[in-house]
Automatic annotation (TrEMBL):
Molecular function terms, GO-annotated: nicotinate-nucleotide diphosphorylase (carboxylating) activity
Name of the protein in question: Nicotinate-nucleotide pyrophosphorylase [carboxylating]
Record's GO cellular component terms: cytoplasm
CDD domains (alphabetical): QPRTase
Catalytic reaction(s) noted: nicotinate beta-D-ribonucleotide + CO2 + diphosphate = quinolinate + 5-phospho-alpha-D-ribose 1-diphosphate + 2 H(+)
Organism field: Rarobacter incanus
Length: 308
């Protein structure tokens, strides 16, 4: 059974295959292949310098302090290259696990096998591993900033197209929490929806009538909107771009009604930075949603080095 903290193997395998297709291209000699049989492509530099029998040991090294994420990709990339070119397998020893906080210079993985496999798979491995580790590392900074406040950091849908599962997995590896995966699993009523429906109440009513089985979240820009949404039955509110003083007022007003309404989950969103994260969390919200986790996190510098 797939664990919640893993990427789906089939999805990651497809991602890796597509990345290798992009890197290796179509070898001219493969032009006449049968329909439906993908060409292996080629690494013109590695194939020219190394023969198929040459072997080496290599390590993947974190060149800066970071949180590791995406190690699953290694087995898929190596196996794909090995199968494409009919080469021997690479032996892999994991020295770290996803979610580990490591220092600069830490060896993450040791590998031994054909040089052609190691070098041909290198960039695909590093591209995916460095991106995922970058998201995980950025997320951990937010987790640390919120420690002790009771609030958690959430991601958003601002992910790299076709790589959402990896981005959201990396957030989990960094200690963060996933919000909705897409448009299909949670109804999020935002300002444009409210304007089109005519009111918060009507927007909620329409969603409930059409999709009674999905959770509803409502965006509110003011205290008045927040209270109106609760009166209409919303139990998860996004407090959007509110000044801290206004957010504190909104939280107090909502919490004072919870004996009647039941628990209301509150999410701060918009204008959040590491510098103001703790102040916002201490207003009493449950979550801070941060698009920058996945749309702006720099990659982690990870390298592959041959060893004697």
């Amino acid at each position: 059974m797939l664990m919640m903290d893993e990427c789906r193997p089939s999805w990651l395998q497809d991602l890796t295959r597509n990345a290798l297709d992009e890197d290796l291209g179509v070898a001219p000699a493969a032009t006449g292949n049968l329909q439906g049989v993908p060409p292996a492509g080629r690494d013109v530099t590695t194939a020219a310098i190394f023969d198929s029998a040459q072997r080496a040991q290599a390590v993947l090294v974190a060149r800066e302090p970071s949180v590791v994420a995406g190690l699953q990709v290694i087995e898929f990339a190596l196996a794909d290259v090995q199968a494409r070119f009919g080469l021997a397998q690479v032996a892999v020893e994991l020295l770290a696990a996803d979610g580990d906080l490591v220092e600069a210079g830490t060896e993450l993985v040791r590998m031994e096998g054909p040089v052609r496999v190691l070098l041909t798979a290198e960039r695909t491995i590093l591209n995916i591993l460095s991106r995922a580790s970058g998201v995980a590392t950025a997320t951990r900074r937010w987790v640390d900033a919120l420690a002790g406040t009771g609030a958690r950091v959430l991601d958003t849908r601002k992910t790299m197209p076709t790589m959402r599962e990896l981005d959201k997995y990396a957030v989990r590896a960094g200690g963060g929490t996933n919000k909705r995966m897409g448009l299909y699993d949670v109804a999020m009523i935002k300002d444009n929806h409210i304007a089109a429906a005519g009111s918060i109440e009507r927007a909620i009513s329409l969603v409930r009538a059409h999709q009674p089985d999905v959770d509803i979240q409502v965006e509110a820009d003011t205290v008045e909107q927040a209270l109106a949404a609760i009166d209409a039955g919303a139990r998860f509110l996004l407090l959007d771009n509110m000044p801290v003083a206004t957010m504190r007022q909104a939280v107090a007003a909502i919490r004072s009604e919870e004996q009647t309404t039941g628990r209301v989950e509150l999410e701060a969103t918009g204008g959040l930075t590491l510098a103001n994260a703790r102040e916002v969390a201490l207003t009493g919200v449950d979550y801070l949603s941060v698009g920058a986790l996945t749309h702006s996190s720099p990659i982690v510098d990870i390298g592959l080095d041959f060893v004697a």
